[in-house]
Specification:
Helices cover 47% and strands 15% of the residues. It is an alpha+beta fold and 245 residues long. The longest helix has 16 residues.
Length: 245
């Protein structure tokens, strides 16, 4: 969706970077309202923390990483649609979101473990490839076979329940986001069977078979592997795990 207007309503408070752990958890997220085709919408997301150099550097570098964690593990992320009815009372909206963040202690722990660089188990490159491949999701949408590369529409969460998995998956999502054109790479890999998927009579069994084939193709993509390695080199100092090459 093309955003015609975005107005930042709340942000972080300027602080000394050495005191990042004393910063209220809610101040790590920003609320904005934008207009699209005459309608007002809300956006609640991780903040880039412009008030302090150290946090701004880290939170900017890890924005897509943090967004993956927020989108998939926070209770606040799913609230914006219902809170839209409260517009234009942005104070009430922010108060409701803050209350949810404060009560969501599991997400707080998950999020701060990354920002504080509390290390988790290493990520082998072959495991990273498997995780990254599962962001390239083929499924049926409104009766039609469709590919997605999405923060939440995928089967990545089903791959593991380990403590480290959210961070490993967030990194892989960030690496894909950093690519010049991940969708072009996907379409190039699946080109041989795309005509089959466009047929009106394509079955669920055919789609499932091609979904699994897509994962295999992407898990063996040299371009995707390079993207993961390059993103790790750029962001290793911020990550709470080691990539084993």
């Amino acid at each position: 969706m093309y955003l015609l207007l975005a107005v930042i309503l709340t942000g972080s408070i300027p602080i000394n970077s050495a005191a990042q752990n004393s910063l209220p958890f809610t101040d790590r997220f920003t609320l904005s309202v934008y207009e699209y085709e005459g309608e007002s919408y809300l956006n609640f997301e991780p903040d880039s923390m412009p008030g302090t150099t150290q946090l701004n550097e880290k939170c900017t570098a890890l924005y897509n990483f943090n967004n993956y964690l927020f989108s998939n593990f926070s209770k606040a992320d799913g609230q914006t649609w219902k809170l839209r009815a409260l517009l234009p009372d942005t104070n009430a909206i922010r108060a409701s979101l803050n209350a949810t963040l404060i009560a969501d202690t599991a997400f707080q722990r998950l999020y701060m473990r990354s920002l504080n660089r509390e290390m988790v188990e290493p990520l082998p490159i072959d495991s990273a490839m498997k995780i990254a491949a599962h962001f390239f999701y083929l499924h049926r949408v409104d009766g039609t076979a469709s590919f997605h590369i999405c923060v939440g529409i995928n089967e990545v969460l089903q791959l593991s329940r380990s403590v480290a998995h959210p961070y490993h998956a967030a990194f892989c999502y960030m690496a894909i986001w950093a690519m010049d054109d991940a969708m072009e790479l996907l379409l190039m890999n699946v080109a041989p069977f795309r005509p089959e998927l466009k047929k009106d009579d394509v079955t669920d069994a055919q789609i499932k078979a091609r979904e699994l084939e897509t994962y295999e193709l992407m898990a063996n993509s040299p371009e995707l592997r390079n993207a993961i390695l390059e993103e790790y080199e750029r962001k290793a100092k911020y990550l709470n795990f080691e990539l084993i090459k």
